[in-house]
Amino acid sequence: MLSPDQVQAYHRDGFLTLPRFLAPDVVAATHERVWSIVDACPPPGGQAAVFSSAERALTTDAELFASARDVRCFFEAEALDAAGRLTRPLRQAVNKIGHSLHDRDPFFDRLFRDPRLAAIAAAIGLADPLLWQSQVIFKPPGIGGAVRWHQDASFFFTTPQTVTTFWWALDDATRDNGCLWVQPGGHRGPLRERFVRDGARMVRQALDDTPWPAEAECWPLEVGAGTLVVFHGLLPHGSAANRSAAPRMACTLHVTDGRARYAGENWLQGEAGDPIRGFVHASARTDHAFVRR
Q: A GO molecular-function term, please (predicted)?
């Protein structure tokens, strides 16, 4: 899947962009499946699950932990009134779906276990890839929340560091609607913080006071729908709020190398009888439905 130059670029920059990875019909089918999940979400009440990167206090740890090996909808804070009722249509109110689409939904099992992803993982050095977390991130028009600067290794700590993110654009992503911003080469810097589970709480541990990158050090990843971005777990990245009229849906998959030690303090853990799997389908068959045409 990757040329030697692409592998070199990934290790140099900490990320790699692969345009047109998903064919337009696959992007359309993914939208269709996403909306069917959203339409089946229970309507929010007084205890609606809200997700906010900028204001972590709005997301309860209990809601987050309950979604670890499930498929649940989280809402944008601005889509709810003081009583927790929707102020806009359901499809315009969801922040994300998480966190086990790859194991709980047959459509996403096929999407996230595309044989090409296994080839990419092998090319960049993941010898025993394990799929931990998957999400659909919406950034709905007008109210899509900002995602603060962070490193994915803060949530999926391994020794040595191996977590790798696969990020697909399901809409065109631009500066106007909240595209990713990255710091090229920033993966060679330190891990600044960890988020660990302490009983029923998620706790932030400060590790290094290196400041997050200034705007002049960063690149906006303005990409078309169907593009795949692969990035290193130490790469600083984030995105602005979406105040435009255009949606910016994306989906993500987080993978580690099974040869590394996965920290027992990480918020997401495997469960007895529900093992963390790699890129092999549950049915152990090869599905070529998502090969680019």
A: iron ion binding
